[in-house]
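Sequence design from tokenized structure. All designs in this work follow the same two-part layout: the structure record, then the generated sequence. An example of the structure record is given first.
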């Protein structure tokens, strides 16, 4: 694998690595970039040599992401034929922009997976020949000296987002297959910088949620959060050292899967690609699976949400295995991701009340968590294993 520095040569004013590589979200901190209306167009032209013909801001939690279509010619020697599908221009939040080595690791992972045949966004080089650059943004004025936001350009993958289409057991199964295969391939990936990464969305930081719990006003919801945290302390934390770790995506949610229909069946959607590598980390594979199950439950429109885990697990286990310890704490880990998403979402909406994207999980999440948390573990695991058995028997040709 290429080293991080090969991706950040073009970064301007990167003179204080120790400052740029540190930073953990603190209550009250506002980190989302503020851009003038013309700034994204200027960034595309100045940093990537591309002339924008259309632009649309995309949903994002802490960053600013723009879908841009561009003219067919480029002044960037590294982009000889601009993509007709367009690009995603990413302006990273001020906190993550301090971690240029982690940003470089994201580039490396996407390029690695792209080289292994996975459909993921491909980072493009800027006019300086690097994948990352710090930009100074003030209203509609942009420059390259003394900026605090990293700017990147990724190829846009056309299709629908999973949450926009009718979900089926087969689609949930494909999600599990895609991520299980990806986690296996990432065993050949390495990044010492990524191994050191710690941030609030790492599930290992679930015990840190109480400092943000003030944002949850409902007493019943707060009590549920406290119960899940207690279960984490009593059942999850003691066995974590025994579980397998590796590099994971860390945010394979319903907003990050691109789906498309097959030519022979325009009514049946299939998983096509995975986007948004902003939360990649070195962590427990069980957390990856828990994250997928939790977010897929949010889009289970025509089936029992508790069944979703069985279909995801069946897909994931076509490439990986689950130990008895992992089966025993899977429910607790899914619930932990629920509270992590819901508590941090409640906190974030206080900081950025106009960003309705922050409420996506909360719309159904609290109700789902309530039902899920109060369903006995034995009942859930039995249901999941029954669904898994059906897939295994169908695959072996049994009736």
């Amino acid at each position: 694998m290429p080293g991080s520095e090969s991706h950040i040569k073009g970064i301007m004013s990167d003179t204080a690595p120790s400052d740029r590589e540190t930073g953990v979200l603190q209550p009250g901190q506002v980190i989302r970039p503020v851009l003038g209306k013309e700034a994204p167009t200027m960034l595309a032209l100045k940093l990537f040599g591309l002339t924008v013909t259309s632009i649309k801001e995309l949903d994002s939690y802490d960053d600013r992401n723009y879908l841009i279509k561009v003219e067919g010619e480029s002044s960037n020697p590294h982009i000889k034929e601009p993509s007709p599908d367009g690009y995603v221009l990413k302006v990273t939040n001020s906190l993550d922009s301090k971690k240029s080595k982690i940003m470089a690791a994201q580039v490396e992972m996407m390029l690695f997976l792209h080289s292994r045949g996975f459909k993921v966004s491909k980072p493009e080089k800027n006019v300086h020949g690097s994948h990352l650059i710090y930009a100074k943004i003030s209203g509609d004025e942009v420059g390259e000296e003394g900026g605090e936001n990293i700017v990147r350009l990724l190829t846009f993958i056309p299709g629908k987002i999973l949450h926009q289409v009718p979900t089926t057991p087969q689609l949930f199964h494909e999600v599990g297959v895609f991520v299980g295969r990806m986690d296996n391939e990432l065993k050949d990936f390495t990044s010492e910088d990524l191994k050191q990464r710690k941030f609030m969305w790492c599930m290992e930081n679930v015990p840190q949620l109480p400092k943000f719990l003030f944002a949850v006003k409902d007493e019943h919801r707060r009590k549920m959060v406290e119960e899940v945290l207690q279960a984490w302390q009593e059942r999850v934390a003691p066995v974590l050292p025994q579980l397998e770790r590796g590099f994971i995506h860390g945010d394979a949610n319903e907003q990050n899967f691109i789906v498309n229909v097959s030519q022979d069946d325009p009514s049946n959607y299939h998983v096509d690609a995975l986007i948004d590598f902003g939360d990649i980390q070195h962590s427990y594979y069980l957390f990856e699976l828990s994250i997928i199950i939790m977010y897929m439950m949010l889009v289970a429109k025509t089936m029992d949400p508790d069944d979703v885990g069985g279909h995801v697990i069946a897909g994931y286990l076509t490439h990986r295995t689950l130990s008895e310890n992992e089966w025993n704490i899977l429910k607790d880990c899914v619930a932990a991701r629920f509270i992590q998403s819901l508590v941090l979402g409640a906190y974030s909406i206080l900081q950025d009340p106009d960003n309705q994207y922050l409420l996506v999980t909360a719309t159904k999440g609290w109700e789902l968590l309530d039902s899920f948390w109060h369903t006995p573990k034995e009942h859930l695991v039995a249901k999941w294993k029954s669904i898994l058995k059906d897939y295994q028997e169908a695959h072996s040709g049994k009736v």
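The chain is about 40% helix and 15% strand. We note this feature because it recurs in several other targets discussed in the main text.
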